Amino acid sequence: MHSAGLVLHPRRDSKAAVDAVLGWAAGRGIEILGIADEIARVDCSATAVQPAELGKRSDLVVSLGGDGTMLRAMRLADGQHAPVLGVNLGKLGFLAEVDVPDLPLALSAIDREEFTVEPRLAVDARFGGRIETAFNDVAVVRVPGDGSAVVAVLVNGEQFVSYAADAVVVATPTGSTAYSFSAGGPITSPAVEALLVTPAAPHSAYSRGVVLSVHDTVTLEVLPSSGRLAVEVDGQVAGYVGPGETIDLHARPNAARVVRLGMTTFYQRARRKLRLTDSAEIPLS
After folding, report:
1. Which residues form the active site (predicted)?
2. 268 is known to lie in a ligand binding site
3. 72 is known to lie in a ligand binding site
4. CATH class of 3-115+261-273
5. Which residues are catalytic?
6. Which residue intervals of the chain bear CATH 2.60.200.30?
7. In the beta sheet, which residues pair with residue 46?
8. What CATH number matches the domain at 121-253, 3.40.50.2300, 2.60.200.30, 1.10.10.10, 3.40.50.150?
9. What distance in Å separates the CA atoms of residue 74 and residue 17, rounded to the nearest whole number?
């Protein structure tokens, strides 16, 4: 390994984690790269680069923050060879692999190549003449005061189902534990290659979500009775669409890779971090 890139949470204190990475790298001749304005905040010795350079020049990307930071690191690593190690500085940290106290052990395991990489699917949303990439979800969300989200879901050019709802969420398996889960969508293993379409607070007669193949062409069409809708990409507003406009969605398997050290399984993380409980009708063993 010749270089590793740091992606930092914009506000949380990451000094202890940064120092652990720098100490690990110093004894191995590994160059540490960081986004210029981020590393300036923590006054560290990493080499400053532009965001577009980080994924290209790194052999490993280390995300220090919460799930939002991890998603940003995955976008920076999109299409590159560097896997992403998530270090949790927050509370939930569903996507992260380790907490800060475990970081030295994690880096030692990477030294010994005692890790696996887990491919993650991305979804590209084309609308308004541009493309936005999500690793969690793309959602069309009602703007307060502008009416409901009335949206048709077209699959391979044919209308499949339509919803009137507060939002319609199209999630990857990675995003199945985020907005989609809150809207009633299923928890889905990241090993599954699919897109999950889930309405949030639906007002329509048909209120179930659907699971679509990554090989399907998926389009969201804003119907005439809809209000103006915000397009949220991984939780951030990327633009707006109105009646008659469409969003074309294209799934890309293996867009990024996440480091897994075998400490926990996806199902163990889901059960613990989402606080899943068993039915009250099932006796305790």
Report:
1. 67
2. no
3. yes
4. alpha beta
5. 67
6. 121-253
7. none
8. 2.60.200.30
9. 19
